[in-house]
Specification:
Low-confidence stretches: none
Strand order of the largest sheet: 1-2
Radius of gyration: 20 Å
Number of domains: 1
Helix content: over 70%
CATH class: Mainly Alpha
Distance between the termini: 18 Å
CATH superfamily: Farnesyl Diphosphate Synthase
Order of helices and strands: HHEEHHHHHHHHHH
Oligomer: single chain
Number of strands: 2
Strand content: under 5%
Shape: globular
CATH topology: Farnesyl Diphosphate Synthase
Structural class: mainly alpha
Number of helices: 12
C-alpha cells in the first residue's frame, strides 16, 4: 500500500511500481523468516513458522533465497535506484536488530537509542517502501526524499503502537509482556525508568533481568508502568511523529492518494492489533 500510494501520489503507477512492490514484499517476508529464527518464534500469523517446521538451517536458507530473489528482480529490470534503496533498508534493519540485542544484554537503553533502534528496525522498511514507490514515478530527488522521510516518521509511530500492545488490556492474539520477557526496553518502560527513584529502578531492572519469565512479576511491572505514565507518554510521542508525517504530506500534491496516505497514517496509530 505504501509503495503504490506513493507512486500514485507523485505521477501514477507503472510497471516499475509493481517491481518495487514485489521487491518490498519479498524483502519483508525474508526479514520475518529471519526474525522468527532470532526470536526463536514458533508461530507466524497463526501458523507454524518455517523454523518451527523445518528448523533453523532451512529457515535461514529460505530467508536468504527470498531476499536474493527480490534483489535479482531489481537487477533484471535494471532498477538500480530501487536496488540501492532496498539494500540500504536491509543494512539498516540488520543494524537495528543488532543494536537491540546489544542493549538487551546491558539494559542501558536511552530514549534516543530507542528511537535509533526502531528507526532502523521498522521505520526503514516503511520509509524504503515510500521512497521506492516515489522513485518508480518521479526522478525528483527532493520528492523521493520527502516520501522517505514521511515513511520514516510514520514507521516510528507504527512501532510505538506495536510496543503499546505489550502493555494493553485487550486480547490482540498474543500474550502481554513479550517485550519484557525478551528484555526489550521499549518507550513505556524507558520513560518510567527515567522517572523513578533508585530503589524503584532496582526493582524494575531486577524483574526485567532476573524475573522476566515470572508471569506474576511481569504483570506487576506492566501495571506499574501503566500507573506511572508510561502509556500516556508513549502515546504523546507517537502522535508527535504521526503529526510530522502528516505535515510533510501536506506539502505534496493534493489528490485522493494524499488523502489515502493521511487515512493510512490515522490507521497506524488507531489500529486494534
Amino acid at each position: 500500500m505504501f509503495v503504490l500510494l506513493s507512486a500514485s501520489l507523485l505521477g501514477g503507477i507503472n510497471k516499475n511500481s509493481y517491481v518495487a512492490a514485489a521487491l518490498i514484499e519479498l524483502m519483508h517476508t525474508a526479514s520475518l523468516v529471519h526474525d522468527d529464527i532470532v526470536d526463536d518464534a514458533n508461530e507466524r500469523r497463526g501458523f507454524f513458522s518455517i523454523n518451527a517446521l523445518w528448523k533453523n538451517k532451512v529457515a535461514v536458507l529460505v530467508g536468504d533465497y527470498l531476499l536474493a530473489q527480490g534483489l535479482l528482480i531489481s537487477v533484471e529490470s535494471k532498477q538500480f535506484q530501487l536496488l540501492k534503496i532496498m539494500s540500504s533498508a536491509v543494512k539498516n534493519m540488520s543494524e537495528g536488530e543488532l543494536l537491540q540485542i546489544q542493549k538487551a544484554r546491558k539494559l542501558d537503553i536511552t530514549e534516543e537509542v530507542y528511537y535509533d533502534i526502531i528507526k532502523q528496525k521498522t521505520a526503514s522498511l516503511i520509509a524504503s517502501s515510500c521512497a521506492a514507490g516515489a522513485a518508480s514515478s518521479t526522478d525528483d530527488p527532493e520528492l523521493i526524499q520527502k516520501m522517505y522521510d514521511y515513511g520514516e516518521y510514520i514507521g516510528i509511530a507504527f512501532q510505538m503502537k506495536d510496543d503499546l500492545f505489550d502493555y494493553g488490556s485487550k486480547d490482540i492474539g498474543k500474550p502481554r509482556g513479550i517485550d519484557i520477557k525478551e528484555k526489550k526496553m521499549t518507550l513505556p518502560l524507558i520513560y518510567v525508568l527515567n522517572n523513578s527513584t533508585k530503589s524503584q529502578k532496582r526493582w524494575i531492572l531486577n524483574i526485567v533481568k532476573n524475573q522476566n519469565n515470572n508471569k506474576k512479576k511481569v504483570n506487576e511491572l506492566i501495571q506499574y508502568i501503566r500507573a506511572h505514565g508510561g502509556i500516556e507518554y508513549t502515546i504523546e510521542k507517537m502522535n508527535e511523529f504521526k503529526a510530522k508525517a502528516d505535515n510533510l504530506l501536506m506539502t505534496l500534491p493534493e489528490n485522493i492518494y494524499r488523502k489515502s496516505l493521511l487515512d493510512l497514517s490515522e490507521f497506524v496509530i488507531n489500529r486494534a492489533k
